[in-house]
Amino acid sequence: MTGFFLPFQQWPYSFVSSEYGFIMKYSIKDLEIISGIKAHTIRAWEQRHTIFTPHRDTNNNRLYTTEELKCLLNISFLNKRGFKISHLAKYSAEELGLKVLNEFSIGEEPEVTMHHWLLATLEMDEVLFERILSESVVKKGLEQTLIESLFPFMQKIGTLWHAGFVASSHEHFISNLIRRKIISAIDCLTLDTSSTAKVFLLFLPEGEWHELVLLFSHYMIKKKGHQVIYLGQSVPWEDIELLSTQRRADFIITVITFPQMEVEVDFYLTRLSKSFRSSEILLAGPYVGTTPLPKLSNVSILNGPEDLKKYL
Q1: pLDDT (0 to 100) of residue 251
Q2: Angle at the Cα of 110 (from 108 to 111), degrees rounded to 5?
Q3: Would you say the pTM of this structure is higher than 0.90?
Q4: CA 222 to chain centre
């Protein structure tokens, strides 16, 4: 459950102006990293089969558009499945896309699902994303789809975003689709009001906005028949402290992706531990997985969904 989102670094791709505004451009090295196809192979395919003709910058370096990147991803995908480059080079972008869809075989090859989701992200194609997701949920169920496919995919998107190979708009587009799907699944679950149900308090500290891990925790907890007090994103400390005097919680779950809080994380966790002395506090997120934290008797780290299941 850690490492889904990473902070911005300087973006390596460039933007060039056009009559329509600005177009994202990738270098041949960018294409190599994203597609896994070596730069010398890409050059060879260009020269022998003219799969596309890149623009050149003032230093004569190749520059590729997002459309050319998607084309390369589809060609690479089909080539690995036995299609010859000489044949693939004759197809239009639309024909390549249809051939890829025809090769779709979910459950047998997880990379096929990842490939389609990457294309859906680059194209911001909600229909394609929903189609692949729905077929996966039918075969595996939502929980396994999230654990085995969607969260690893979000890690990939987070890494590409961190390195500057996808824009923040791509990351927001796909994470909001997943967010809606999880919220819809939560709403379909029955609320347990039995006296044996545990109470879980879920929130993100002030300045934290990446909510998918918290929402997935909400889904798993409610599915197991426990009660959830869900406060959501960026909750001020004053509100948390007030709640500690008004409502009992057996467990508290919070996520720290990369701290933007005004106070130090160690100080924040120490205050949280003292305010909720009778609660077990469970921490998730990339920050808590990579940074030494104070040793507090009622604070534990969640390294993944299996860790959470132990408490359910």
Answers
A1: 96
A2: 120
A3: no
A4: 22
Per-residue pLDDT, 11: 31
Q: What is the mean pLDDT of the chain?
A: 80
Retrieve residue 279's tokens: 């609660």
The pair of three-digit structure tokens given for residue 240, joined into one six-digit string: 């948390």
DSSP letter for each residue of the chain: ---S--------SEEEEETTEEEEEE-HHHHHHHH---HHHHHHHHHHH-S---EE-TT--EEEEHHHHHHHHHHHHHHHTT--HHHHTTS-HHHHHHHHHHT--TTT-HHHHHHHHHHHHHHT-HHHHHHHHHHHHHHH-HHHHIIIIIHHHHHHHHHHHHHTSS-HHHHHHHHHHHHHHHHHHHHTSPPP--TT--EEEEEEETT----HHHHHHHHHHHHTT-EEEEEEEEE-HHHHHHHHTT---SEEEEE-SS---SS-HHHHHHHHHHHTTTSEEEEESHHHHHS-----TTEEE--SHHHHHHH-
Pairing of strands 21-26, 251-255: unpaired
Neighbours of 77 (CB within 10 A): 22
149-182 burial by CB neighbour count: b if 16+ within 10 A, else e? bbbebbebbbebbbbebbbeebbebbbebbeebb
What letter represents residue 139's amino acid?
Answer: K
**pLDDT tens-digit readout, 244-290:** 888 889 999 999 876 665 458 888 899 999 999 999 999 988 777 66
pLDDT of residue 92: 83
Kindly report the backbone phi and psi dihedral angles of residue 132, in degrees, each rounded to the nearest multiple of 5, phi listed first: -70, -40
Where is average pLDDT lowest: 19-28, 132-141, 238-247?
19-28
Distance CA 282, CA 289 (A): 12
